[in-house]
Amino acid sequence: MTISVGVVFPGQGSQHVGMGWDLYRNFQDVRDIFSQCDKILNQDISRLCFEGPTEELDMTENTQVAVLTVDMAVYRIFDNEVGIKPAVMAGHSLGEYGALTAAGAIRFDDALTLVKARGRYHQEAVPAGEGCMAAIIGIERERVDAICREISNVEGVVEVANINGSHQFVISGHTQAVNHALIKAKEAKAKLAVTLPISVPCHCSLLKDASERLGVDLDKIEIKDCRIKVIPNLDPEIVHSKEKTRDLLKRQLISPVRWKETIEKMVHMGIDTIVEVGPKKVLSGLIKRIDKGVKTLNIEDMASFEKTVKSLNKI
User: Fold this and answer.
1) Catalytic residue at 203?
2) Which residue is catalytic, options 199, 203, 211, 255?
3) Packing angle of the helix pair 95-102, 245-252 (nearest 10 deg)
4) Active-site annotation holder among 14, 46, 93, 304
5) I need a labelling partner for 220 at 20 to 30 A (CA). Which of 165, 181, 278, 281 fits?
6) pLDDT tens digits, 88-116
7) What is the reported pTM?
């Protein structure tokens, strides 16, 4: 039986203390990736991933490079040990940098320095405590949009930041406005309306300055065409190319992550199996809600690695 495999990379919010440790102990490739990261950034990202503390790991400037490093370490195992070439890849927000690096469009050292700056620009764009993100599950997109429009007129910015499913969204903006939106969502019978462990308001207009600063950095690095197709968050109807990637990554900061459409695009391309590479398996859960017909697998530790290899070898 022939299968068509897609690979997806998680982003900020998937981090947890201890991520990557099990694989680090078992694979030299993983140890090499972590060592490379520590040297490039002159920072002990390995210790932060394995030991924390959580408060330090959850700081956006640290979270983004830590998650990217784990994503790339896990993909290296997938690439070297599983031996299946994916037909297409995508990453959720920060994870898009993992997909582009895995596809050969961006060098790992450039990706790390870009993501380190990206996290810093996020932190500096909105003072700590003034912005946040929150998940809303169980109501229609139109209702979420209406709540955001109503509140943004009087209480600051609140916008839809992630479209993760038909009834699953993330909003972003000023803390007071986001908290008010959560109250309104609960009044509208949302099944869940809760803030997320992310210290900045990603994917909204509050990051316009951060987007401009990142654009300057993007202009300084070499970007190549992808060896494997990568679907961008900004516009799932196209794929990344050396001509488009800089602009797509710059505008990604202030635009919603269209994850539902990304997975639908993969399915339309004939993908029947999607492997999530990186900490936790949040994306696998989202994918199942988008299309129950897609087989989902993940690699985050030895148990999930062995399960995924066994599953793929059976097909």
Assistant:
1) yes
2) 203
3) 160
4) 93
5) 278
6) 999 999 999 999 999 999 999 999 999 99
7) 0.95
